[in-house]
Amino acid sequence: MTLVRRIAIAAVSIGLMSAAQAQTWPDKPIRAYIPFGAGSATDVIHRAVFDAVATELGQPIIVENRGGAGGTLAVGAVVRADPDGYTILANSSAHTVSPFIVSTSYDTAKDLSGVLMAGQNANVMIVNSSKGWKTVKDFIAAAKANPGSINYGSAGVGSATHISAERFRMAAGIQAQHVPYKGGPEAITDLLGGRIDFYFCPISTALPLIRDGRVVALVVSIPTRASDLPDVPTPAEAGFANADTIVWYGVFMPSKTPRAIVDKFNAAAVKVLATPAMKAKLKQLAVDPMPMTPAEIDQLVVKELSSNEKLIKAAGVK
Fold first, then answer.
1. Which of 111, 29, 33 minimizes the C-alpha distance to 77?
2. What confidence tier does 10 reach under pLDDT thresholds 50, 70, 90?
3. Contact at 8 Å (CB) between 126 and 270?
4. Cα gap 250→292, rounded to integer Å
5. Angle, nearest 10°, between helix axes 259-273 and 41-57?
6. E strand or H helix that includes residue 90
């Protein structure tokens, strides 16, 4: 038997094994690691989706919040897991930032494969209403009049809230001291207490505070106006080019996971995300659909890794 024929037979055998695995998968609970704390936008959004996907798959999805080290502890746990479809990563767009901030033993693009995109939303820059800043121009004028006096909070170094703020800060040409927190709730507490000046908060979290008049929304992070905040300008409308940041929420598996299992999980999730009930639930969380195939998710990750590496270096983020 020639070498080529042996390779072909082996490939067919692997394909048949993968198909057989997919037929019985899942026959036990699936564990999902989230790199952020309970109550964070990443946590809340993925839990909402997982509850419905678990019903569709017939097995529970057990969520474990494992924060720390810029989110790389959770990512590393999934990379090292058996590629059998029973260990998944539920992350935000911080997934393509953390590799440039924290030393990792894995390759984000090569060691993980996209499984589904739960959706996307925007961050909104909020300030304490007591500051008296009614527009983003008011804020910029104050920041430039008093260089070094402004600070901002984030849900951690490399988080989407951090990257949104850094893109805006650099585009606006202002100085601002970064104050990282363990999570978003702590940053909001200090914003309301006057200890930080601004925070790029997930819209779903910011809306109640905006409606109560406790904070003022100055600019959204996305290229188009947010439906929940139609009167708040985009960065471009505020006069700042290249300051957009779209926040997405995606699920990944170890790259060696059989493609049949990846496709089965994706099909179940896509079915769930298309239901009116899930659309309504995500709308309440200010999340918009972002339908993508596993291959398209992988392409997005590669593109964003390149873009974010440039930003991190230019901003001097450590």
1. 33
2. very low
3. no
4. 10
5. 100
6. strand 87-92
Nearest to 166 by CA among 231, 258, 75, 101: 101
Q: Which two tokens stand for residue 54?
A: 């678990």
Q: Please tell me the chain's helix, strand, coil percentages from 3-state DSSP, rounded to the nearest 5.
A: 45, 20, 35
pTM attached to this predicted model: 0.80
Of all helices (H) and strands (E), which one includes residue 93? Answer: none
- What tens digit of pLDDT does each residue of 34-55 get? 998 888 888 999 999 999 999 9
Tell me how far apart the alpha carbons of residues 113 and 258 are, in angstroms, rounded to a whole number: 10
* H or E element that contains 72: helix 72-79
State the Cα–Cα distance between residues 79 and 87, nearest whole angstrom. Answer: 9
Please state, rounded to an integer, the average pLDDT across all residues of the chain: 90
Cβ contact 296:116 at 8 Å:
no
Question: Which uninterrupted H or E stretch holds 192?
Answer: helix 184-192
Which residues does residue 240 pair with via DSSP β-bridges, in sequence order?
none
